[in-house]
Design goal:
The complex is a heterodimer of chains A (335) and B (164).
Chain A: H1 7-38, H2 42-74, H3 77-115, E1 122-129, E2 141-144, E3 157-159, E4 164-171, E5 176-180, E6 187-192, E7 198-203, E8 210-216, E9 226-229, E10 241-249, E11 256-263, E12 272-279, H4 284-287, H5 292-297, H6 300-323, H7 328-333
Antiparallel strand pairs in A: 1-12, 2-5, 3-4, 3-12, 4-5, 6-7, 6-9, 7-8, 8-11, 9-10, 10-11
Chain B: H1 2-23, H2 37-48, H3 55-69, H4 75-89, H5 91-95, H6 99-124, H7 135-163
Helix pairs in contact in B: 1-2, 1-3, 1-7, 2-4, 2-7, 3-4, 4-6, 6-7
The chains are: A alpha+beta (335), B mainly alpha (164).
């Protein structure tokens, strides 16, 4: 419209332009959402945006962690002593369990070797802390303070002291986002610990419940049963506790029984987590030499150096294999 | 050019503060009570200065918030585009409402905003959110008058400084 036009028509055209803009940007937003929902291109956008987002997260987190530090400093010594005693007791109990675990692992190795089964997988744990930022409640994500610079990879399983939390979704240099198992789009291969009944646990959209919608109706599942990861699918290692069954619904009209379970991990309030990395299974003969305690004992720093060493240790072997001349040697010498 | 930059600066500053407030950690039970900070700031600037916060700016700030909070990319963008469109469309009326009436219209705007979220969530096939989902518009409505005064004072001080 020409600036000198009549007031009414100028206003009308202004409104038309406004509506046109609404439609344009609205359409753009809907296209973006569809692309994000289907996982196209958007992950790369998020990776790139990570460089801007990281400093903001750290800036938001800084006062929170500072406040925590001050709080811890002023915490009374009697409280600290009490906590210390409690932790010591806990540690003792867990060490007892671990001793038995070492024997059991040894036995497991032997039995597997006898049965000529595949070697059990080895895992490496890495400590990480949640960054104190609140993400969109619909996104079911949390942010951890380790990223690609400490070797975090996409798809790694994340657990806390009580159970499985989720898996790493986006990796940035110094932080990573973890998709929680409570996400409605998350499916976790699990089994009922008591019976070995395998099924899949879906997120319900709430942090207090998982849904196991496809249990055979005659299957033996009860309230209070422990649900553990089955290890199928390869992303989550097997045997980690996930949830306890809170209700089983055997509707006559449905093909499957449907159970709800309460996650054991503190999905909405935890702070410390462990990242699990599956190491390549070792050859069975060497498997017996491995001391399992070396793994479980390893604190964060030690594992760090371990993690660096493993790929380096493997590379000469790979190089030797690529040579071609002595390619048979390492293969033949092993058994 | 210079005056436009001066006008743009307070908008950017307040939007940045609102975004930080949005991801600031709160204890679990308080999370549902978190006001829709960015939406409130956008409503304010939409009412006061139409030239600086056009629909496009709402889109961009929505995208920024999407990336920051890890939500579905475009969700907040769509919310804020509709929000600012409505504000600009009914600007002449909204501006001259008495405060309580203005707060009520903010409530209507934010409830509409939640309905858009509900629509997106159900299109995604996610389960519907808990009743706490509807708390945010109410809390925001109570905060609106104070927020309005605060931002007004901030804007005036900026203008004075620019004039001095």
């Amino acid at each position: 419209m020409v600036p000198g036009g009549t007031g009414v028509s100028a206003k009308l055209s202004e409104q038309a332009a406004l509506t046109a803009r609404l439609m344009l940007y609205g359409l753009l937003a809907i296209v973006l959402m569809a692309m994000d929902h289907r996982g196209k291109y958007v992950p790369r956008v998020r990776e790139a945006a990570g460089y801007f987002i990281e400093p903001i997260y750290h800036a938001v987190e800084w006062p929170v962690s500072a406040a925590r530090g001050v709080y811890a400093f002023f915490q009374s010594s009697s409280h600290t002593q009490r906590e210390n005693a409690r932790l010591r007791e806990q540690l003792l109990g867990q060490q007892g369990d671990l001793q038995r675990l070492a024997a059991l692992t040894e036995e497991n190795h032997r039995l597997r070797a006898l049965l000529e089964g595949t070697a059990s997988q080895r895992f490496e744990f890495r400590f990480a802390e949640l960054i104190a930022v609140d993400l969109d409640p619909f996104s079911h994500k949390v942010v951890i303070d380790r990223g690609s610079s400490s070797g975090v990879e996409r798809g790694q399983a994340v657990i806390d002291g009580a159970g499985v939390m989720g898996q790493v979704e986006e990796v940035h240099p110094h932080l990573a986002t973890v998709r929680l198992i409570s996400d409605p789009n998350h499916a976790l291969p699990v089994q009922i610990n008591r019976t070995g009944q395998r099924t899949v646990a879906y997120g319900s959209g709430e942090t207090q419940a998982l849904i196991l919608p496809s249990i055979p109706r005659e299957a033996d599942v009860r309230e209070g049963d422990l649900v553990v990861t089955s290890g199928l699918g390869g992303r989550f290692p097997g045997g980690y506790p996930v949830a306890t069954v809170t209700a089983v619904d055997r509707d006559e009209g449905l093909t499957f029984a449907r159970a709800t379970a309460r996650p054991l991990a503190a999905l909405d309030r935890g702070r410390e987590v462990l990242l699990i990395r599956t190491l390549a299974p070792e050859p069975t003969a060497a498997g017996e030499e491995v001391d399992p305690r070396a793994h479980t004992d390893a604190a964060g720093e030690q594992v760090d150096s371990d993690g660096e060493a493993v790929p380096r240790g493997e590379s000469p072997e790979a190089a030797g294999g690529a040579d071609g001349t002595d390619a048979d040697d390492p293969g033949g010498g092993r058994p | 050019m210079n005056t436009q930059r001066e006008r743009l600066l307070p908008v950017l500053v307040t939007l940045a503060i609102a975004m930080v407030l949005t991801i600031l950690p709160l204890p679990g039970w308080m999370e549902a009570w978190r006001p829709a900070w960015v939406a409130l700031v956008l409503v304010y600037w939409g009412l006061e200065t139409r030239e600086v916060v056009p629909v496009g700016a709402a889109f961009v700030s929505g995208l920024a918030l999407d990336l920051l909070t890890g939500s579905l990319l475009g969700m907040h963008a769509l919310e804020y585009v509709v929000l600012v469109y409505l504000v600009i469309r009914f600007r002449a009326r909204l501006r001259f409402f008495p405060p309580w009436q203005q707060a009520l219209s903010v409530l209507a705007l934010l409830v509409n905003d939640r309905i858009i979220v509900l629509w997106i969530v159900s299109l995604k096939g996610d389960p519907l959110p808990s009743p706490g989902f509807w708390l945010a518009p109410l809390v925001s409505t109570f905060i609106w008058p104070w927020m309005f005064l605060l931002l007004d004072r901030y804007r005036r001080s900026m203008r004075h400084r620019a004039a001095a």
